């Protein structure tokens, strides 16, 4: 009971975007490893479930996702990887999801994305963030060790195959995925790499990926894979979709993207996929969370942005409860103040019409 109490306290602390102690991260990762090591490379997930795409350290948008989709454990979640990098809060994002996994192991499934990698995180932000926030790379090491234990894919009710990237020319069946030794750094090539890096493309057969890893795969490849494994569709993440989700190949492949206003500048909406007990689909579309603006203004190095903080604080009771700016209006607001467009997330609630 004491362990659960400590874990609940840590979850609440992380929900407030507050760091937990390094010693607590170590203990959390040890508990997570015990759970994840028992999971399959093709982890079975039962419906109803809500399927989510990339998060990329956008912590306040993860909170918005939970607001619109329901909290854990009331809602059963499957996250398809890329929890870290690029956003400002990769540490808090990943640790919150990991803590929820330890607390409610049957209500949240985490599979590996191409950014759950030592090499990638040293380039795209997670390594530097751990060093900055904890003063050493120890927490980064704890987390990247856990990456090696994350499942490579999931199967919902035996009918919907979920994977971060896509298919591999080395893999024809789910049983072949089950034989992969996943407890390693993501290789530069081969089937494990392909599952995390590949993309669908309007072509036939296999093509060279411009990413430099994985493959492009066509509709015929998908048809063969789905038929061989008696599945209805493939659900994946990995690619920014401005509308939040995108169907491919006559609705046999679906891309879900769950990081709104990606990198705080792309202006896209995000989506999550709700599947009921009959695998009926409903998409929830959401925009970026306004609350992140507070901390962004506090920490920005731009004097113009920082000087706006008192004004935004004054307007927050209105903005937080009533208004929702369009992306063009938000960018226009910054232009009126004579500096370049800001990488702020979109406020979510209020509509403003400009003549």
Automatic annotation (TrEMBL):
Coiled-coil annotated spans: none
Enzyme class: hydrolase
Domain Serine/threonine specific protein phosphatases: 111-116
Key words of the record: Hydrolase, Manganese, Metal-binding, Protein phosphatase
Entry EC number(s): 3.1.3.16
GO molecular function, one term: metal ion binding
Keyword hit for Manganese: yes
Reactions the enzyme catalyzes: O-phospho-L-threonyl-[protein] + H2O = L-threonyl-[protein] + phosphate; O-phospho-L-seryl-[protein] + H2O = L-seryl-[protein] + phosphate
InterPro entries: Calcineurin-like_PHP (IPR004843), Metallo-depent_PP-like (IPR029052), PPA2-like (IPR047129), Ser/Thr-sp_prot-phosphatase (IPR006186)
Record family assignment: Belongs to the PPP phosphatase family. PP-4 (PP-X) subfamily.
Protein name: Serine/threonine-protein phosphatase
Lineage of origin: Eukaryota, Metazoa, Chordata, Craniata, Vertebrata
